[in-house]
Amino acid sequence: MTETKKETPVPQELKGTIKDRFISLTENLQFAWFSGHAVVLLCSFIYLFSFNKIIYRIAYLGVLHSFGIIVYQQYYQNVKTAVSANNNGGASPNSSTSFPKLSVNALINDENVLYFVLAAMWLITPVFSLSLVPYSLFSLFHVLKYLQNILLPVVFGISKENNKRVSTVAKFTHTYNEKCMYWVGSSEIIIVVLLFVRALLWYPSSCIILLTFILFLKLRYENSKYTKSAFSQCRVRLDGMISHPSIPAPVKGAYNTAKAKLIELSRYQLTKPMETEKKAI
């Protein structure tokens, strides 16, 4: 879960009114990023009880907004700043200043780009409620971190050092942030299974959506330890279930064949390690 590159510094002494401090904060690009995640979180909560299609679409507009800002920073703003520094003599052309190289391999290795493209697909395709789960988990932790690290200290002077509730939130995000990534990986496995069932039932656009998501999941498997771990845990659980004596031999044979094929497929790499690409430059 990548956050914006620049964080608003927390001042030692609060200056001005609460209104002035809040307005100053809203002028920062990071606040726009936070707003996108807040929209996702709020709309996901409302959608949970209403299943309103408009709310669902608004949630994905929030996803595109927040992830779009990250992609903009990585592939436009940072590059523009570096180029400007070179042109103004701030850095030599041979300096060690680095920024993302715009290439196909760089893009498909970038989780923010992948989640942005996937969100665009969910926005324009028929509603699939479970697809909001990974984005809602991302937004929950991003919103909580922004509140505890930026908004509350900068605007209200409240921090984990002087407020027990903020301290509790800080402990929660610290304890469950990494676990959240495993939850995301597990939810994405459930999603691909349900998409496969929908394809068998000939839901509208189901085959295109399934193939797109399988490609996304393959790219995530190659680059995310959390996705790999989710698949490993799933395989262990299925192995335990299939090994039960009550399971018919044909079912066990079909499972083992399918597992072997998936393991073989996992060995084919769609991406190249970014380190290799850097050494070649």
Descriptive overview:
Pfam families: TMEM33_Pom33. InterPro entries: PER33/POM33_regulator, TMEM33/Pom33. This is Similar to Saccharomyces cerevisiae YLL023C POM33 Transmembrane nucleoporin involved in nuclear pore complex (NPC) distribution, assembly or stabilization. It is a multi-pass membrane protein. Its main location: membrane. Helix 7 packs across helix 9. The protein is mostly helical. It is 74% helix and 0% strand. It has eleven helices and no strands. The protein has one domain (18-280). It starts with 17 loop residues before the first helix and ends with a helix. The radius of gyration is 22 Å and the shape is elongated. Residues 7-11, 89-97 and 276-281 have low confidence and may be disordered.
